[in-house]
Task: structure prediction
Amino acid sequence: MSAGFKYDLTPEPSVEERYDVSTGIRRRGPYRLDTTNLNVGDVLPSFIPIAADLNYKTCKVVRNVKVVEAYTSGGTSLKIKKGSYAYSGMFLGNGTKGTAVSGVDKSNSDYDVLTISDFGANIAKNAVLFEASAAGGTSPKNVANSALYESRKVEGGINLVALLSVAREIEPDKLVVPFSDKDKVNLGKDFQFNE
Result:
């Protein structure tokens, strides 16, 4: 019997280009990724929203979520698109209302279910909510000014990543983690979404 390796890795789903790669411009130098509330072994797909500190060369994942089923005010669960990096203890908001996340159920293969307190408003299907700085949900904790250049597996210790500063013809439906309206305003004309 020959010796061999057994790999237990789930590959990133194969999708068409998320943006026109010929228009992508990388930021200079690597950035140190803040891995708070990320797990060793998590795979960050390419072109997720990133908040970068351009002076200190550090960055954080912007944790936006896309709602996959309309939510009615008063409910305690919210169905979101898989791959959002939501975690228990975070706040979600839309700019006027917000909620606290007390649990994340990833057992369904089609979507994740967040256990939340009452959001205080109805949320339409396909709405994008941002990680808020407080339960009121009025301001985001992080706002994107970059996107992750290539997929990256989170490892123990220091994680260095490459970022994009410009991209054109971005296909929002093909993104694993969506960009919120506040991200799009902050990105300005450097990132052009096909909407």
Residues 65 and 129 are 5 Å apart (CA to CA).
